[in-house]
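Budget justification note: compute hours in this period were largely spent on complex prediction jobs such as the one shown. Inputs:
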Amino acid sequence: MSIKDSKIEVEMNRGFLQIMVLLALETPMYGYMMLRFIEKIGYSVEENTLYPILRRLEKNGWLSSRWDVEHDRPKKYYEITEEGKIIRNKLLGIRQKQTGVISKLMKEVNNG
Amino acid sequence: MSIKDSKIEVEMNRGFLQIMVLLALETPMYGYMMLRFIEKIGYSVEENTLYPILRRLEKNGWLSSRWDVEHDRPKKYYEITEEGKIIRNKLLGIRQKQTGVISKLMKEVNNG
DNA sequence: ACAAATACTGTATATCGCACAGTATGTCAA
DNA sequence: TTGACATACTGTGCGATATACAGTATTTGT
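Corresponding output:
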């Protein structure tokens, strides 16, 4: 294989990770908690990948955050915003369209 | 909306475009022909996006190409290689896994 | 003959996933 | 009680990609 497999996954993660985060944060969660949650549902993200995504999505106005300093060590809870929901649905729409293209092509490959 | 919609599509295209090209090139095609073909099946790619992808995938050994200079103006026909098929299946596998994660999350969003 | 469509190449840029490096608090076994 | 490990985060830098911008050359339609 001329290109490392890891590189492929990086490419495939692009776009998808946003969807995953925006879907998960229907319920408020802090970063580290999400890492565990994502593993639990059968995927995995790098720590170094998730934290920047959270910051970026917040900067875009798609997430809001608040610090919980009352219990244990400080935790930054994130939650999806209304604008975030709109974007999320848009992303899901694009993905669905792509999935349609893929299945159309797969049919041709099998029949052709 | 704080971020232009076009940017979203760029993100979502990442990874997907490779899959689309690798699936389409089960049948040999040249660049311009593919542009039309992709439109026909209900998607669209920029000329400036497709050509670099074709070159890159060939450089990776996932596509092979040959020039047809016999008819009309010169056309560069591309076709998927065996290695390309392996990669394509890997990409499809990752995408399926992602789809699984998404539907799991969607269920929680609806029930939670 | 002139515009538009065809069919490509080459360079530059912004963005993002992730690597690398670092800070600080809490827990638990030896 | 100390020091290893888990928790919980921040900040900087790099490489790869989608796409913009610019350009070349041939063919077709009017």
